[in-house]
Amino acid sequence: MKKLSLLLVLLFVTGIYVFAQKNQVKINESQVKWTGTKIGGSHKGEIKIEHGFLSLKSDQIIGGEIVMDMNSITVTDIEDQGYNQKLVGHLKSDDFFGVEKFSNSKFVISKATEFADGKAKVTGQLTIKGKTESLSFDVFKDGNSYTAQIKVDRSKFDVRYGSNSFFDNLGDKVIGDIFTLDISLII
Fold this sequence. Notes:
The protein has one domain (21-186): Lipid/polyisoprenoid-binding, YceI-like (Lipocalin, Beta Barrel), CATH 2.40.128. It contains 2 helices and 9 strands, in the order αββββαβββββ. The chain has helices spanning 2-19, 81-92, and strands at residues 20-24, 31-38, 41-57, 60-69, 104-112, 119-128, 131-142, 145-153, 175-186. Strands 2-3-4-5-6-7-8-9 form an 8-stranded antiparallel β-barrel. It starts with a helix and ends with a strand.
């Protein structure tokens, strides 16, 4: 009886391995672009993906993890180098992402629907500054390319600078709590 039970367990584990495929993200071809808003404007930039993978089974995402290198954050909409580096430094500071202590942010996929007309709903856990929140969003598939736009409420991750969720009387110095991540993953 023990041999039969062991055989069934081995067949089950082997079946999962055979049918689920772990695909590494091509980090040099993939990208994460961010957009943050403030009264009277916005800023944009990029964050490099350190590593990641998507697990697929029968063309459905069944898991995955994307790790972003917060030290790589850039600003792409400010041409003046001095002002650009000032903003990059501020974004890396404890006022925003505290990259000295929290050098990575990550998203771990917990579930997804099947793709229908190239679109699926993905749910997972986003961790920024050591805080984790559940998020759901649509992912679009075209060949080996997976794209998504994620709206992130920074106040849930203790990113407080200029947020009227935490401070009163900011006037025209308010920075929007919601920032956008436009993600393109190539596997």
